[in-house]
Amino acid sequence: MATRQTQSLARLMRAPAIILLLIWMLVPLGMTLYYSFLNYNLLSPGTTSWAGWFNYQYFYTDPAFFQSIWNTLVLVLGVLLITVCGGIAIALLIDKPIFGQGIVRILVISPFFVMPPVAALIWKNMIMHPSYGVFADIAKFFGATPVDWFAQYPLLSIILIVAWQWLPFATLILLTALQSLDGEQVEAAEMDGASAFARFTHLTLPHMSRAITVVILIQTIFLLGVYAEILVTTNGGPGYASTNLTYLIYRAARLNFDIGGAAAGGIIAVILANIVAIFLMRAVGKNLD
Amino acid sequence: MGSITLKSVRKAFGEVEVIPGVDLEINEGEFVVFVGPSGCGKSTLLRLIAGLEDVTDGQIMIDGKNVTDASPAKRGLAMVFQSYALYPHMSVRKNIAFPLKMAKMPEAEREKRVQHAAGILNLTDYLDRRPGQLSGGQRQRVAIGRAIVREPSAFLFDEPLSNLDAALRVNMRVEISELHKKLATTMIYVTHDQVEAMTMADKIVVLRAGRIEQVGSPLELYRSPANRFVGGFIGSPNMNFIEGEVAAKMGAHAIGVRPEHFHMSTSDGLLGGTVGVAEHLGSDTFLHIDLDNGPHIIARAEGEFPVHHGDRVYLTPQEGRVYRFDQNGLAI
Amino acid sequence: MARAVSRNTKIGYTIAAWFVALLIFFPILYTIITSLKTEQEAISGFNLIPSFTLQSYEDVQSQYNYIRPFMNSVIIAVGSTILALIVAIPAAWAMAFSPTKRTKDILMWMLSTKMMPAVAVLVPIYLIFLRTGLMDTRIGLTVMLMLINLPIVVWMLYTYFREIPGEILEAARMDGATLGQEIVYVLTPMAVPGIASTLLLNIILAWNESFWTIQLTTTNAAPLSAFIASFSSPQGLFWAKLSAASVMAIAPILIMGWFSQKQLVRGLTFGAVK
C-alpha cells in the first residue's frame, strides 16, 4: 500500500492543515511574546518602548493578579468538584432501568448546547435575580429575604452557572464509560459476594477512572478560559471578586488598552494551560494505538 | 488458464526478510493450500501473488505472462478476505456486481452473472440485503460470490473460515471444495488449520519462516514427511516424537509415530506407560500416556478400549509406520 | 445486561431520574415558558403557565432586527466548519491511510494548538484584525473559528477514517477499481457518516463560541453569541423578550445537539472515550 507515489500524495494532502496550524500557533504566540516586553498602550501611541521584564513584574506585583489566579483556581476546582461528583451520580442513575430513558438523557445533556452568554443571562435574570428570579420567589415563599447572588456571592454564582453548563458533558462521558462496563464482570463480582458498594468502588470506579481523568483534563482546559459568563453577569466584580485570569487579561487589553501588560498576562496563561495540557496529551496519546 | 509460477520470489519489509526466496509451480485447476503456523509468511506469499504487496526480488508469472509489476486488477485474480471485506454500504447484489461494474460490463450481463452466482451460493433470497444483515456464513458466501462472477483465472482465499464457528466451518469447507469441483479453476487457499489443508487440497505447501518445507498431496505429506516439522504439523492429534535409547536402537536421533499407528495392549508391548487422561469417544479412544522414562504421548485406539486413569498400557508402533529423523530433523 | 428488576424498583428509579433531569432542564424550560408570557406576567412572580403570546418574539425581531445576528451565526458556523472540513479531510485521510512514523506526533501537536488559551493571543489577533480591516467582518470571524476548530475536525475525521478496514480497500483493488473509483464507490460512502457527524459537532461548537465572537465583532458581523452578550444589562431587553431571544438562539443547536450525543463524546474527548 505504501508505495512511493502514495507517500508523496499523502504529504501533499497533509500540508495545508499543518501549515495553517503552524502559522496559527507560531505567529500570534510570537507576537504576544514580543509585546510582553514592550511598553505599549493604544491610548498613547508613539510612546512604545522596550520594557524588559517590567510588564511581568507589574503583573506580578498587582494584587489583582493574585486574586485572579486564586479565583481561577477556585472556579476550576469548584466546577470540577460539582460536575465530576454530580456527573457520576447522575450517570449511575440514568444507567438504571427507567421509563423514558431517551428523554431523560436529552433533558440532562441540554444545558451543554446553550451558548455561554445565554446560559449566564438565563441564570442572571430568570433564576438568581434578587427581585424576579426563581430563587427569590422561593425565598419569598418561605418568608426569607432573597439573596442578591451576584453582589453577595459573585464567584459562587459563576461557579454554579458554569457547573450547570458542564455537568451534562461530565454526565454524558461518564455514562458512555459506564455503559461499556462488562456485565459479566459485574455478575462475576456478585457471585464472589461483593456488595453493591464494593462493586462500585472496586469495579465501576476503576473502570470509569480513565473517563474521569479525561473529563477533568478537558474541562480544565475550557474552564481556564471562562469569559462570557463573567462578562454578562458580574463584569469581574464587585472589585476583583469574580475576575479570573482570562478576564483580567481581557480587561488590560480591551478596557485599559495596555497591550504590553495583557501580553505578559497571556504568556502566564499559556504556561498555566501547558501544565494541564501535558497531562491531557499523555492520557489521550495512550489511546492512539 | 490459471497456472501460476513463482521464481525465487523474495520479500523484505525494510530490514526484515519475511520470505527469503520461494520457487513454486501451481498447475491449472489445482487446489493449492498454503499452510503453516502464524507468522510463517503464508499470507504474505498470497498477497504477493495477488499484487497487494510489491515483490522485493524475483518473478511471478500467471499463465506464462510476467505479472510481477502488474497491478492487482490486471492480474485477473479474485480474492476472498479473512474479514470478508464486503462493502457495507452496498446491497449483496451490488457487492457481487462491483467487480463487473469496474470492468464496465453492461447492466443486463451483470445481472445475469449475479443471478447465476447467487444461485450457486444459495444467496438468491438475500440479494437486496446489506452485509450487516447477514450471518457470518452468508457474508462468506457473498465474498465468494463477488470472486466468482469475475470468472478469474485463479481464486485466492486468505483464511476465509477463521471467523466462523466450528460447525459452519465444516459446512463451508465442503461448499468451497464442491465449488472447486464445479468451476475447476485454480484456487490458492491460506490457512493455519491442517485439517482444512488435508481435506481440501490437491497440493499442500507447508511453510515455515518464509521457507517451503515440503510440497505434495495430502497423503504424500502424511505418509512421507520430509522432516520433523512437517511430520508434527500434518495429522491430528500431532505425531509423537520419541528420542533417546528407543530411537537410537532404530538408528535415528528421534522417531515419530502417529497416535493412530500404535498397537495397544494391557499386557505387553515395546513401550510401557501409565494412562493419564483417557478420552472415550465411542468411535475412538484417545489416551494420554506417560511413557516409562520417556515423554508424554498421545495414542489412539479404534473403537472402545477399556482403560482408565492410572492403568498400565503397552504400545508397539505398527510396522512401516515409524518415521526416523536425524540430528537436524530431516527424515532418514 | 438485560437484568430483570421489579416494576417497583424501576418506578422508583424513574421518579428519581426524571426529578434530576427536570431540575437540570428547568432553567431552559422556564426560559421557554417566560418567552411565551407578556412582560407584565414575566416579572410578577413564579408562574409556570404563560398566556402563550408570541408578542415577545415579534418584538425581538422588530426592535433589534434579530434576523441579522441569526444569519451571521448561520454563515459563520456553517462556513467555518466547511472550510475546516476542506482542509481537514485530505489531512486526516493521509494520516489514516498512509501513516508515517511522525503521524502520531503531528496529531498530538495539532491537539496541543487547541490547548493554547484564547486569551493568550487576544492581543495580537485583536491588533491584526484592527489593522487589516477584518474587525467586525464575517470573513474574519469565519477564518478565525475555522482555525480554532481545525484540530478537533482533523482528529475526529482521523478516528473515523481509521475505522475503515484496510482489507476493504484491497478488495476494491482486487475487484479492478482504479484509485478514483476506489474513492468514489468505496471510500466516500463509507466515510460520509463520519464526515457528517464531524460537521454536526463543529457547527455546534462554532455556533456557541463566545470569546472571539465578542472580541472581534461589534454590530455588523455579530453572531448570536455576541448579540445576546450585549444585553448583559436588561434595561433595553425585558424578561420576556430576553427569553424569546435566548430561545431562538439556542433552539437550532439544541435540536442538533440531541441528534449528536454519541459524536459529542467522541469529538470532545478526541476519541479517548467512545
UniProtKB/TrEMBL annotation, chain A:
Q: Which Pfam families match?
A: BPD_transp_1
User: InterPro entries, per this entry?
Assistant: MetI-like (IPR000515), MetI-like_sf (IPR035906)
Q: Does the keyword Coiled coil apply?
A: no
Listed under GO biological process in this entry are: transmembrane transport
- Gene3D superfamilies noted in UniProt: MetI-like (1.10.3720.10)
Query: Where does the UniProt entry say this protein principally localizes?
Result: membrane
TM region positions: 12-37, 69-94, 106-123, 155-175, 211-232, 259-281
Query: Keyword Transferase, does the record have it?
Result: no
Q: Which UniProt keywords apply?
A: Cell membrane, Membrane, Transmembrane, Transmembrane helix, Transport
According to the lineage, what is the superkingdom?
Answer: Bacteria
Any one annotated GO CC term: plasma membrane
Protein family membership: Belongs to the binding-protein-dependent transport system permease family.
Q: What is this protein called?
A: Sugar ABC transporter permease
Automatic annotation (TrEMBL), chain B:
Q: Is-annotated flag, keyword ATP-binding? A: yes
Keyword Membrane attached: no
PROSITE patterns tied to this protein: ABC_TRANSPORTER_1, ABC_TRANSPORTER_2
Query: GO CC terms on record?
Result: ATP-binding cassette (ABC) transporter complex, substrate-binding subunit-containing; maltose transport complex
Give the UniProt keywords, A-Z: ATP-binding, Nucleotide-binding, Transport
SMART domains linked to this entry: AAA
Signal peptide positions are none
Mention any Pfam family matching this sequence: TOBE_2
Q: Where is the ABC transporter domain?
A: 4-234
Gene Ontology MF annotations: ABC-type maltose transporter activity; ATP binding; ATP hydrolysis activity
Q: Which family does it belong to?
A: Belongs to the ABC transporter superfamily.
Q: What is this protein called?
A: ABC transporter ATP-binding protein
Can you name the source organism?
Paracoccus caeni
Lineage at the top is: Bacteria, Pseudomonadati, Pseudomonadota, Alphaproteobacteria, Rhodobacterales
Automatic annotation (TrEMBL), chain C:
Task: List UniProt keywords, sorted A-Z.
Answer: Cell membrane, Membrane, Transmembrane, Transmembrane helix, Transport
| PROSITE patterns, A to Z | ABC_TM1
* Membrane-spanning intervals of the chain: 12-33, 74-94, 106-129, 141-161, 182-207, 238-259
Any one Gene Ontology cellular component term annotated for this protein: plasma membrane
Localisation per UniProt entry: Cell membrane
Q: Which residues form the ABC transmembrane type-1 domain?
A: 70-260
Database matches in InterPro entries: BP-dep_ABC_trans_perm, MetI-like, MetI-like_sf
Q: How does it sit in the membrane?
A: Multi-pass membrane protein
Report which superkingdom the organism of origin falls in: Bacteria
GO BP term, example: transmembrane transport
Which family is it part of?
Belongs to the binding-protein-dependent transport system permease family.
What this protein is called in its record is: Carbohydrate ABC transporter permease
What organism, scientifically named, is this protein from? Paracoccus caeni
